[in-house]
């Protein structure tokens, strides 16, 4: 079994950025990824300087091409199912669904997060006409008749105020949840209509939203909008190797990518337990890689 300096779990912008830094530092790195990155449903990615509007898969392909220049970096398409630490050797052992096993001195967790929506039907439109990040997709929906779909008042306030910068033709759908009088008055003062009735169905074609049908049968025309999902980590690798988490389930770090377990690092949306931009995730990956390389240097010097 080959031994790696670092294994990166997840080939999103955080994991790939970290692998690039470590490859340039002449570290032996394996990237394990199964292609379930959250932005794979998105038509275009925005806000990454020099790559604005790029398709997520093309972004990933370019990054992988960059890594080909560094012979100590390896990539495998596989799913990690178990991570363990051998206390006697201080090495980590990783097992995958393809019955492969790896051992490594350091691990970078960069598997990201996944969404859960208030309505399962949102999946049909997500990434095409319904989105969760106005900074990523607000420009493309500017001045269109938009919906904000959210259930918690604090989420509704935040998203509605934000989206209002891109379109004043805005309607809020709370899917059966009530809003305070203060919020109602604030929104009505901006001529933002609120529907607190439950949503029966979304209507559209090929991912393009056309209308939102309420339980009463009323149909409100909308051509797109923004939703507020809840987010979760899709695996328990951090818990498997006893990384400490906070009261909200976030993994505790030192601010430079190091977790509370020596040799385990984290970057990107996995660390935040919430959504992040491509650019910020890539920066997180670089920062974690600097920590990994410095720790390897000090271990061996």
TrEMBL record:
Transmembrane segments: none annotated. Pfam families: Pyr_redox_2. InterPro entries: FAD/NAD-bd_sf, FAD/NAD-binding_dom, Ferredoxin-NADP_redctase_2. Residues 4-149, 176-277 form the FAD/NAD(P)-binding domain. Its cofactor is FAD. Keywords: Flavoprotein, Oxidoreductase. The keyword Oxidoreductase applies. It comes from the Bacteria. One of its GO terms (molecular function) is oxidoreductase activity. Homodimer. PANTHER family: THIOREDOXIN REDUCTASE 1-RELATED-RELATED. This is NAD(P)/FAD-dependent oxidoreductase. It comes from Niallia circulans.
């Amino acid at each position: 079994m080959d031994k790696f300096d670092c294994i990166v779990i997840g080939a999103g912008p955080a994991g790939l950025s970290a692998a690039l830094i470590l490859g340039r530092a002449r570290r032996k790195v394996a990237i394990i990824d199964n292609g379930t990155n959250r932005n794979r449903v998105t038509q275009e990615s925005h806000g990454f300087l020099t790559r604005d509007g790029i398709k997520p898969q093309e972004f990933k392909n370019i990054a992988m091409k960059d890594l080909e220049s560094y012979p100590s970096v390896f990539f495998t398409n596989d799913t990690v199912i178990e991570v363990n630490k051998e206390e006697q050797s201080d090495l980590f052992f990783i097992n995958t669904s393809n019955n492969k096993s790896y051992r490594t001195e350091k691990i970078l967790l960069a598997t990201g997060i996944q969404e859960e929506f208030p309505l399962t039907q949102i999946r049909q439109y997500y990434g095409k006409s319904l989105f969760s990040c106005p900074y990523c997709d607000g420009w493309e929906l500017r001045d269109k008749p938009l919906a904000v779909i959210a259930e918690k008042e604090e989420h509704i306030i935040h998203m509605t105020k934000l989206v209002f910068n891109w379109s004043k033709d805005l309607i809020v759908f709370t899917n059966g949840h009530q809003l305070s009088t203060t919020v109602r008055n604030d929104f009505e003062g901006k001529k933002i209509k609120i529907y607190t009735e439950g949503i029966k169905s979304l209507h559209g074609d090929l991912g393009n939203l056309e209308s939102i049908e309420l339980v009463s049968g009323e149909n409100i025309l909308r051509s797109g909008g923004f939703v507020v999902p809840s987010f979760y980590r899709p695996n328990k690798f951090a818990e498997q190797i006893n990384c400490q988490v906070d009261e909200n389930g976030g993994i505790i770090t030192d601010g430079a990518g190091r977790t509370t377990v020596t040799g385990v690092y984290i970057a990107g949306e996995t660390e935040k337990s919430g959504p992040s931009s491509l650019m910020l995730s890539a920066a997180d990956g670089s920062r974690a890689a600097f920590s990994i390389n410095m720790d390897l240097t000090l271990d061996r010097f």
